[in-house]
Amino acid sequence: MAADIVTQRPYKCTVHLALPSHQYAQHLKEVISVDQEISNKVVKSFAVVKAPSSGHITEDSAGVEADGGVDSGGEMRVLRIHFEATDAKMLRVSMSTTYDMINVALKCFQEFGE
Fold first, then answer.
1. Computed from CA positions of residues 66, 72, 73, 79, in that sequence, does the dihedral angle turn out positive or negative?
2. Bridge partner residues of 79 (DSSP)
3. How far is CA 73 from CA 1, 5, 61, 69, 78, in A?
4. Cβ pair 69, 51 in contact under 8 A
5. pTM for this prediction
6. Distance between CA 68 and CA 37 in Å, rounded?
7. Are strands 11-18 and 78-85 parallel, antiparallel or unpaired?
8. Which DSSP state fits 70?
9. How many other C-beta atoms lie within 10 A of the C-beta of residue 50?
10. Greatest CA separation found in the chain?
11. Helices 22-32 & 88-112, crossing angle to 10 degrees?
12. pLDDT digits (tens, 9 = 90+) for 26-81
């Protein structure tokens, strides 16, 4: 049956954004996760995670940046966005659009506060 067939999405990418605070990360997640993809060719998932203390990116680690993505209180302030797509073009388009939305949201945060 067609409903039982899972769409294969061999093209994958995970992006980690270290932000100034957990509140920034949570607000950004809420803002950009509202818009769904217009087709089922791309799937995005969002999570606010704690970065590894080493600050090095591995397949199992959650963050990036030299400071490890964790403030002095150890709170989670890294936004992880995982993309899966059926083809490379759709992955690129989805990532580009997401970066544009992130850029606008961060400019709004900067201008008007969280």
1. negative
2. 17, 48
3. 51, 45, 19, 11, 14
4. yes
5. 0.76
6. 30
7. antiparallel
8. B
9. 17
10. 52
11. 130
12. 999 999 999 888 889 999 999 999 876 655 555 444 433 334 444 455 678 899 99
